[in-house]
Amino acid sequence: MNGENTIAAGEPFDLTRAFGDTWCVSVTPLPLQESLHRMGVHVVSDLPDGLALASLRSVRRSTVTDGSVLLLAKPADRGTTVVLQLEGLSGWIGSDPETLGDLSSSGGLACSIWSDPNRTEVLCAEDGRVSAGLDAVTGRSWVQADDRATPGLASLGASAGADALAEGGQWNSSQRAVLALRTITGVRLSDELCGDPWTGGFASW
After folding, report:
1. Cα 77 to Cα 23: distance, rounded to the nearest angstrom
2. Are the CB atoms for 194 and 46 separated by under 8 Å?
3. Exposure of 1 by Cβ count < 10 A (0-12 exposed, 13-18 middle, 19+ buried)?
4. Which end of the chain is more exposed for a tag (fewer CB within 10 A), N or C?
5. What is the tens place of the pLDDT at every residue in 26-53?
6. Is the pTM of this model over 0.85?
7. Residue in 141, 132, 138 with CA at minimum distance from that of residue 185
């Protein structure tokens, strides 16, 4: 992490301050090992210095030729799992609709937030299908009827086709995505939750 990410009470965690402009965080309703397996990790290991390993791989990305991507995970509130990906040159595993749908196929709701320069997105799936999304830069959202993410998105002031979330201007797009993740899943990201140690492994992507 790029220094301590001190936040005021009630202020959403700032992933961009912590990790830079590119990251993906997924919250799944599954146990840690099953979450990683469904995201393509076959060998799961304890990674006490997971963030340092991720940073080293980012620096040496041009030498990584096997198509592997490091995923870091840890248990979170309400029996959920948080999965962090910091290597995005080949895309974000958590943003893949098929993968996100699979993470929710046993019941429950899976949600991913991710950022590339000038783009920050939220995507949710339940019961095996992608059902809601939010552009955290513009505030525009879309939902399927009766989707459980709808109350979470509505609580942010974002309804389908509206940009009320962005108009408030209270938080940056990273924080708005984190706020959406929290209101939808109940998981509050923090320095502790997003810091070492981790459990994880390599997925092909």
Report:
1. 21
2. no
3. middle
4. N
5. 999 999 999 999 999 999 999 999 999 9
6. yes
7. 132
